[in-house]
Write a structure and sequence with these properties.
alpha/beta; binds NADP nicotinamide-adenine-dinucleotide phosphate; 26% helix; 2 domains; Quinone Oxidoreductase, Chain A, domain 1; Rossmann fold; 10 helices; binds zinc ion; 335 residues
Length: 335
């Protein structure tokens, strides 16, 4: 069959119509009719070839929600009509130590959906069914997509840093990822401080669940801390002066990176060493954690706040993401 998609045909290019043929589903594959697809900042990094591994035509979209229409002969856990979500990861070896520990996202053979094939800016998506996740009934299709990349990434980034409850958590950058991080941290019983460059986001932060909002204008540094945090999660796509942020961390606190700055980290050792602080970074999350995150989102009422666009307005939506004008996640919807 032929798939109709939107693709960037060169680095930094606008999205244009692009058609390609797909063969029937292989043994573990499923064909999904796309209902909606979130726009993650990683789609922009990939369109722009910021990370040096993009190939063109590049069909973005890795926060895909759709309905299964066809399955391969060995697929037993999904059937036609099921509603599923697909995130950043297309496949892994499923045999190595990382995969067997449930860390398929760390597998040396892991493949990104839009790195090695077309993504969800399309009418259909063919994908390995083992990386398609049933969406809980209580989560609407228009808001579910962003959980599959942004949601799992911040949930894992907070959990990896030791988030439980009763802690002080800081979130830097209140975009697609950050606004979901605020909700996960707050609804799981923590006190949340946000750091944002946007005045309007600081004003809205309380409605999202934040207890405190600190505005730090672009190029400026935050004021000296009045209290200490256990965990700071950075979701910003650029390098900042990290030392003033480290000073917000209590002893044994952790700075957890999920945003991908475009230059190397420049962090002196002493602010870490003297307070036994840690820094860590993590990509998305494994399959078990994705299922856990989806059920936590349903049970605790954690919902991305979305701006919905038709697929015909994809370029406009992309530009809004570039300009940091989206509040808080853009989603393309087929209906
Ligand atoms: N680790 C992973 O597996 C993973 C998964 C998904 C995405 N990511 C990465 O996470 C990052 C964020 O993605 P996203 O989709 O949340 O992006 P986004 O919606 O564009 O949000 C990023 C936010 O960072 C802040 N920001 C942007 N430019 C800034 C600057 N110059 N100085 C200070 N703050 C700035 C803004 O928040 P304020 O307006 O509040 O300041 C902005 O809303 C990207 O680098 C993306 O590639 C990583
Ligand atoms: Zn993403
Ligand atoms: Zn593996």
């Amino acid at each position: 069959m032929q798939i109709q998609a939107l693709a960037a045909k060169k680095a930094g290019g606008i999205l244009e119509e692009y058609r390609f043929d797909v063969a029937p589903p292989k043994v573990h594959d499923c064909l999904i009719k796309v209902l909606a697809c979130g726009i993650c900042h990683s789609d922009l990094h990939m369109i722009d070839n910021d990370w040096g591994f993009s190939s063109y035509p590049l069909v973005p979209g890795h926060e895909v929600i759709g309905e299964v229409v066809e399955i391969g002969p060995q697929v037993t856990h999904l059937k036609a009509g099921d509603r599923v979500g697909v995130g950043w990861q297309r496949s892994s070896c499923l045999q190595c130590r990382d995969c067997l520990r449930g860390n398929e996202n760390l597998c040396d053979a892991n493949q990104g959906l839009i790195v090695t094939g077309p993504g969800g800016f399309a009418n259909y998506l063919m994908v390995d069914s083992r990386f398609a996740f049933p969406i809980p009934k209580g989560i609407d299709s228009k808001v579910a997509g962003p959980l599959l990349c942004g949601g799992i990434t911040v949930y894992a980034g907070l959990r990896n840093a030791g988030m439980s409850s009763g802690q002080e958590i800081g979130i830097i950058g209140i975009g697609g990822l950050g606004h979901m991080a605020v909700q996960f941290a707050k609804k799981l019983g923590n006190r949340v401080t946000v750091f944002t460059t946007s005045e309007d986001k600081a004003e809205f932060a309380a409605q999202m669940g934040a207890d405190e909002a600190i505005v730090v204008k672009k190029g400026e540094i935050p004021p000296a801390p009045s209290s200490k945090l256990n965990i700071l999660l950075s979701t910003v796509p650029v390098a900042l002066d990290w030392v003033p942020y480290l000073n917000f961390l209590d002893s044994d606190g952790a700075l957890s990176f999920v945003g991908v700055p475009d230059e190397p980290l420049n962090i002196p050792l002493f602010p870490l060493l003297m307070k036994r602080r840690r820094i860590l970074a993590s990509p998305i999350g494994g399959r078990a954690l994705i299922n856990e995150m989806l059920s936590v989102a349903e049970r605790f009422g954690i919902e991305p706040i979305v701006e919905v666009f038709g697929f015909d307005r994809a370029n406009e939506a992309m530009q809004k993401v570039r300009d940091n004008q989206v509040r808080y996640r853009a989603v393309l919807s087929a209906s």
